[in-house]
């Protein structure tokens, strides 16, 4: 493995950790905002609201909980997906890249990214329906407006997982014939 490749992998590992930490922060902030709004710990004007749905909260606590739950779920799944990506960067062996662990890890990532896309599509549909009914949910779109990109990314990562699975089969056959 060349030093440039090693440097790029280390750089990607650091970047994936930074993104993972940022998504964990976002998920935690959403959970605290939800708890503070739900239990009325602080008035909304004294909070740093990552997702400001105070008007929706006053109109319908059920829809408020649904949208916040979807935002927390999507953010949490994104964070966990990036944690799995950090594991790929950590355990990647370019001398023998096709391993059972890598294949399982990439397949797992594709499933979690697919879940992000599906939850995003559901959240987008719910948000559009609430907008039609006149509920104030305009600032919620930013949490799931990229769902189609996650659906496409899930398909690409799943194909890569299948390539890894086939590469593992070929690698094990080659080891048996040598």
Low-confidence stretches at least 5 residues in length (pLDDT < 50)?
A: none
Q: Tell me, rounded to a whole number, the average pLDDT.
A: 86
Instruction: Tell me roughly what share of residues is in helical segments.
Output: over 70%
| Shape, principal axes of CA atoms | elongated
The N- and C-terminal alpha carbons lie at a distance of 23 Å
- Multimerization state: single chain
What is Rg?
Answer: 20 Å
SSE order, one letter for each helix or strand: HHHHH
Keywords: Membrane, Transmembrane, Transmembrane helix
InterPro entries: DUF2975
Pfam families: DUF2975
Organism: Algoriphagus taiwanensis
What can you see in these coordinates?
This is DUF2975 domain-containing protein. InterPro entries: DUF2975. It holds the Pfam family DUF2975. Keywords: Membrane, Transmembrane, Transmembrane helix. It comes from Algoriphagus taiwanensis. The protein has 178 residues and is mostly helical. It has one domain. It contains five helices and no strands. Helix 1 runs antiparallel to helix 3. The longest helix is centred in the N-terminal third of the chain and has 36 residues. The chain is elongated and about 70 Å long. The two termini are 23 Å apart.
Topology of helices and strands:
Layout: H1 3-38, H2 54-59, H3 61-91, H4 100-132, H5 147-177
Describe the structure concisely.
This protein is 77% helix and 0% strand. It is mainly α and 178 residues long. InterPro entries: DUF2975 (IPR021354).
Quickly list its features.
single chain; elongated; transmembrane; 178 residues; mainly alpha; DUF2975; transmembrane helix; 5 helices
């Amino acid at each position: 493995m060349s030093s440039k490749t090693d440097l790029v992998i280390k750089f990607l590992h650091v970047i994936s950790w930074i993104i993972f930490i940022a998504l964990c922060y976002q998920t935690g902030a959403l959970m605290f905002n939800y708890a503070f709004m739900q239990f009325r710990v602080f008035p909304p004007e004294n909070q740093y609201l990552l997702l400001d749905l105070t008007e929706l909260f006053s109109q319908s606590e059920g829809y408020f909980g649904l949208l916040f739950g979807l935002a927390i779920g999507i953010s949490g799944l994104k964070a966990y997906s990036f944690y799995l990506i950090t594991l790929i960067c950590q355990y990647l062996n370019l001398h023998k890249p096709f391993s059972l662990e890598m294949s399982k890890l990439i397949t797992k990532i594709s499933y979690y990214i697919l879940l992000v896309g599906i939850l995003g599509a559901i959240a987008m549909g719910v948000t559009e329906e609430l907008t039609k009914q006149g509920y104030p949910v305009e600032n919620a779109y930013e949490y799931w407006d990229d769902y189609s990109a996650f659906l496409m990314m899930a398909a690409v990562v799943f194909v890569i997982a299948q390539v890894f699975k086939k590469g593992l089969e070929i690698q094990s056959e080659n080891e048996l014939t040598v």
